[in-house]
Amino acid sequence: ALKDSVHLQKVLKQVADSLETIRNIALENGLTPLPTASNFLTIDCGKDGAFASALMNALIHQGIFVRMPGVAPLNRCIRITAGLPGELEILAETLPKALEEVRKTF
Fold first, then answer.
1. How far apart (Å, rounded) are the C-alpha atoms in residues 21 and 25?
2. Number of structural domains, the chain?
3. Which InterPro entries match (predicted)?
């Protein structure tokens, strides 16, 4: 697949478009996306590791695949991997609800 330059460029564009969508979803929800050179976007949740962990768990509970760095100060962030348009629509619907739920306890 790496030797197929047409396919490679198509996949790279899909990943870039996906990351841009995730970036916009984060910004729309008051979160801070960090620059990336990978297939995932790190998002600063703006609070401590406990808040980020609670948000991660709320998203996972809703079927969103999310990870979190375990070492401070990055533990205040979550990581969301590039996805398909339908998956990103689910993220756009789920993230505000998860944030609302988590913000009630923080």
1. 6
2. 1
3. PyrdxlP-dep_Trfase (IPR015424), PyrdxlP-dep_Trfase_small (IPR015422)
**Tens digit of pLDDT per residue, the chain (106 long)?**
678 899 999 999 999 999 999 999 999 999 999 999 999 999 999 999 999 999 999 999 999 999 999 898 999 999 999 999 999 999 999 999 999 999 999 9
Range of the domain at 46: 5-103
Q: Which of 11, 84, 73, 85 is nearest to 42 (CA)?
A: 73
Q: Report CA Rg, the chain.
A: 14
CA 94 to chain centre: 12
Name the pTM for this structure.
0.93
Alpha-carbon gap, residue 47 to 57, rounded angstroms = 15
Q: Which residues pair with 41 in a beta bridge?
A: 80
Q: Which of 8, 30, 14 is nearest to 82 (CA)?
A: 14
